Amino acid sequence: MANRLIGKRILITGAAQGIGLAIAKACIGEGARLFLVDRDAALLKDTADALRADGAKLGSMTADITDAGAISTAVKRAGDEIGSLNALINNAGVNVFAEPLKSSDEDWDRCFDVNVRGAWNCCKAVLPGMIEQGGGAILNIASTHAFTIIPHTFPYPLAKHALLGLTKSLGIEYASKNIRVNALAPGYVLTQKATEYWNSFPDPKAAEAETMKLHPAGRIATADEIAMAAVFMISDECRFMNAACLTVDGGLSVQQHQ
Fold first, then answer.
1. Catalytic amino acids?
2. Which of 234, 254, 246 is nearest to 24 (CA)?
3. What predicted TM-score, i.e. pTM, was given to this entire model?
């Protein structure tokens, strides 16, 4: 334990697996107290039980971030179980990929409800407490889709662009209240979602190899590498970064195609 997050009381959404779980483990290792939220009740229970078995002290609640009432309840419960929140990591999200003219209204609604409205629901729930206690930090997990476009991924990039706008707007709005709002933009990350994406192709191994070739280092990020960037952005080491976005993609979004 490096104790970089001692005194931090963090709510993490989408915390039962993937990047969210990696962030939770990293934050625990740095001394934070956590409240975990996920919509998958069984998976969240297994995750929370495993972390507690390893000695972590944390609270958890099943909730869908698109349900503002449920998120409000989660924030109140977090206050009771770990103390008033001074940090939020908006990690929960959903991939919605299609060609624009083949995208349905249902695709659009689902994408924006989860990736934008859901993040706002969480911010709206924690901000009053942060203002009252004199400060806090919010980190929105965005994506390189927030500033680059991959064909046939509509409307996901629109939602991530909007999440970046939300980050900047709230960061400027509440800077005078000592509240920092930032975003972290991963590129490809080795998670179950990535595996499912590769498995959607006729030749998953070839699809995986093609993804690796896109990156200057010939590989993609691990969830732990994203998690440690999140630790930095929530920590007081990063206390003057606000309304900003940190890209962690191994140079993918900088390199032109070969």
1. 156
2. 234
3. 0.96
